[in-house]
From TrEMBL:
InterPro entries, A to Z: SRR1-like (IPR012942)
Coiled-coil segments on the chain, per record: none
SRR1-like domain segment(s): 86-216
Name of this protein: SRR1-like domain-containing protein
Region (Disordered): 1-33
Amino acid sequence: MGQEEGEWSQVTRKRGRTVPEQQQQHQQQQLKDQALLSGIHPNPKPELTAAEIRKFHDQVDQEWRISGCWQKLQEALLEGCATPDGPLITAAICLGPGPFDPANGSLLVKRTAHMQTAAFWSIVANLESQSGRRIKRIVQEPGFTQVDKEFCGELGFDVVDTPGAFTMVDSTTLVFGIHMELQTYAEALATLPGIFIGSGLDEWEKLMNVTPDLPGLGPMREMDAMYEKFAFPDLNYMFYGTTVYWRRRGCENLATPPAN
């Protein structure tokens, strides 16, 4: 079975690859979404209560659970956990899902925050059920309001202020960060985690302005050399270009100091 069909494989680097027109369209849409999300700031006048946020979240969560994306991802997690030398995960960190009550009132921002949070929660729950061990859930989002934090508490998350979560990463941690800036990845991956879910090396190497010495590419290349990978199934571009990196237990866990 080829990698496109869901097989876990050793990460390989691909050079000289052309980008198909459809993929270019996806990348353009992703850049538009990122531009919108990058302008998000804490809402100075929150309008939603924690109960109202939870009601919307439950609707999005139901969409996530019946999606083909989640069905495919469950199969991949089952295969990954069946590997005898896989990582032992004791904590999971969700980076920058976005505010649940955005200041600009954007439905895209709100749905993206809830869908990523639903995906994170279900992935952790799946790993817990397969390992039989409790996994601590942590979330870090600078755009959260106090109501957002209260809602996260209802989901069983510990909310930490930036950059607190970065120092919590070790070889038993799952790091979940969708479409983050490379500098954020550099800080989060100063110590390589057990599992990383985010934009992979291949995605960064497609960008014209990426140079080998950019912060964050060092950790990416270390995972590229040591980890297995699986392409995270997409869902309406919300997870486009996302990769699951799965550490092999016993491989050297190198620490890459973040750039100044």
